[in-house]
Amino acid sequence: MRLFHSPSKEPLWKDEFSVFTSDERYVTRRQFTKFLTLASLGMFVGNLWILAKVRFTKTPAFPTVEVADISEIPVRGVKLFTYPTAQDHCIMIRTSEEEYVGYSQKCTHLSCAVYYSAKNDCLECPCHQGFFSVKDGSVLQGPPPRPLPQITLERHGAKLLAVGVKGSSTARWHLSSCCSSSRSGC
Q: What value does the mean pLDDT take over residues 24-38?
């Protein structure tokens, strides 16, 4: 760059800015390789970040809450409770003499409250006619995109306890005990 610029028709910035518009349309191999290398490096670092986040994130610890006594719910009876917080409403159904299932009462479509229909033996959402299976919480019909979150229930003597929440309801939850001595009282 010259210290003293002689007056010319071209403005000073065009003289100092050394990019020609005719060359802007073309990408050189070096520029393309640099772009691919930086994009690949960014993707690799992003994947490492996701892997580290998943690896070191702790699973949530759910409290153990007493839900009901076994004698207070008849077969095909329902008990409403809150778990894991007071704002999370749940529904427990006694499906047989020795089997209880619990689900979040919030529909996975638009968060309307679901209720148990003994006549149809399913959980129903009155807002948009969504139907869920009582056995595993899966969607039977309607617009809900996912099954209901299932509440893990355990039996301790004559008491039913909620001990966790499972997001995908693929398994059927039977009564479980912590020790074999209490199992004999079932």
A: 86
